[in-house]
Amino acid sequence: MTIQPLPVPTRIFGGEGLISYASRHAARNGTTAEEIERALYEAGAIPKPSHRRTRNGCRPGATSALSTSAPSPHPL
Hints:
mainly alpha
């Protein structure tokens, strides 16, 4: 499916992720978030899911040396 460009400039706000952008865009345009995500992937606007990083900075399936049970003494 191809999604037509919006008639107004669209931007991702600071700190906004793909999920919140896709949900906001879908609600305004009568599509689903999955359709928005697919269009962004196809347009090359965002990397494929296997290349994206998660909130903790690691790729999905990768292990992290940081423990999430206790706060880190050093901010990242």
